[in-house]
Structures are given as structure tokens and as C-alpha cells.
UniProtKB/TrEMBL annotation:
One of its GO terms (biological process) is NADPH regeneration. Signal peptide: none annotated. It comes from Cohaesibacter celericrescens. Residues 2-102 form the Pyrroline-5-carboxylate reductase catalytic N-terminal domain. GO terms for cellular component: plasma membrane. The keyword Glycoprotein does not apply. This is NADPH-dependent F420 reductase. Keywords: Oxidoreductase. The keyword Transmembrane does not apply. It comes from the Bacteria. It holds the Pfam family F420_oxidored.
Length: 222
């Protein structure tokens, strides 16, 4: 099953492409510049060993068409709505996985939520009820994703209005060797997306002896 990553030439998109390809999932890496996507796809493939699935760099529209079911949106929030509007004609029958966080302009330690409440809800409103949107992978460090010598050090919270779509996305994410938790409908994205600037603040703090932290759901000891 081929997945598409739109905005795949950015740090988080590249990291996800590496992780999914290593897990055996073919990736169509999308960019506004198809030639640049093709070059980056080749560079990413050079980092992978035998047995990895193929990463193909394409223009955004072609990458979307190449996806069998799942299209991951990994663009900056400034291009979020325009990208979805352009791709909407090609998204019928597919699930959009929105990983975008509406970080405040000039201050990534804060969010500026859109009128709909979150980027996930904005995507669902723009695409309409027939194209399910699932929010996921908001709180993962791009640096961690790109370093294949590191395990992904966090759990993944998944939300969206369609339960079957949530389950499909959770199954995909679990191929990366991480736990994915059903966090409920799309409104939960208001909380999940807002965790990212808190993690950024912690990770850049001089008082904290680590970086690239994530979140974990811990079971009780009893």
C-alpha cells in the first residue's frame, strides 16, 4: 500500500518517509517542485538498507494520485488550506492524515488556532464530510524521525470524526514500532496540537538536560 506525504521534502516529511519506507511501506513524496522531490527521494533511498520500500519523489498532485488510501499532510500551516484546496479533487476515497500544527508566527512556543479550533478541524471543514481527516503525529520530533539510529521515543495520539479512518491510521502508525492511541473525534486535536509548542519550549530550555522529548502514555504500576 503506497502512502503519500505532501510537503514531504520538509524535515518531518523526510523523516516519516524514511521511517515508513524502512518499515516496508512505499512512499510517494510530494512537493510543489516535483524535480526537487525526485532528488530528495533518491537521497533518502541512499540512507536505507536492503529490504526497504521505495520512496518516489513527485509533484504534490501526482503523489496524491499515487496513494492507495492514505495521504499525509506535512506542510507548514501557512500553506495548509491552500494545499488542501488544490488537492481536494484528487482526495475522493482517501483518508487525509493531518500532522500540521498551527504554530504562532515568529514564536513556535505558542499556537494560533484557526477559527475551526485546530488544523485538523479546519481540514475537515474544507474537505467536507466525505473525505475523512485524521489528526496524528503532531508531537514527534523531526530530528528523531530522521535519525534512524534512534527509536521513536513517544506515543502517538490519533483523532478524527471517522472511527474506521482512525483505526486505519493507527494500524499504519504502529508499523513504525510505536503505540498509537485513539484520542476521539476531531475536536481532540485542539488539545493534541497544542502539546507541540509546550514540547518545543521544554526542548529548547537551558534548564532541561535533554532535547527532542515526546509524550508517553504510562500504565499504572498496580
Amino acid at each position: 500500500m503506497t502512502i503519500a506525504i505532501i510537503g514531504g521534502t520538509g524535515p518531518q516529511g523526510q523523516g516519516l518517509a524514511l521511517r515508513f519506507a524502512r518499515a516496508g511501506v512505499p512512499v510517494a513524496l510530494g512537493s510543489r517542485d516535483g524535480a526537487r522531490a525526485a532528488e530528495i527521494g533518491k537521497d533518502l533511498m541512499a540512507q536505507l538498507g536492503e529490504g526497504a520500500a521505495f520512496i518516489t519523489g513527485l509533484a504534490n498532485e501526482d503523489a496524491t494520485k499515487a496513494a492507495d488510501e492514505l495521504v499525509i499532510l506535512a506542510v507548514p500551516f501557512a500553506g495548509h488550506n491552500a494545499t488542501l484546496a488544490a488537492l481536494k479533487p484528487h482526495l475522493a476515497g482517501k483518508i487525509v492524515v493531518d500532522i500540521v500544527v498551527p504554530l504562532a508566527e515568529g514564536d513556535p512556543k505558542k499556537v494560533t488556532m484557526p477559527p475551526e479550533g485546530s488544523a485538523t478541524e479546519a481540514a475537515q471543514a474544507l474537505l467536507g464530510p466525505d473525505i475523512p481527516v485524521v489528526g496524528a503525529l503532531h508531537n514527534v520530533s523531526a530530528t528523531t524521525l530522521k535519525n534512524l539510529d534512534w527509536d521513536i521515543n513517544c506515543d502517538i495520539l490519533v483523532c478524527g470524526n471517522s472511527l474506521p479512518a482512525r483505526k486505519s491510521v493507527m494500524a499504519l502508525i504502529e508499523k513504525l514500532g510505536v503505540n498509537a492511541y485513539n484520542a476521539g473525534d476531531a475536536e481532540a486535536a485542539r488539545c493534541i496540537e497544542a502539546i507541540t509548542p509546550i514540547l518545543i519550549r521544554i526542548n529548547i530550555s537551558k534548564q532541561v538536560p535533554f532535547t527532542h522529548a515526546g509524550i508517553k502514555i504510562w500504565a499504572p504500576d498496580h
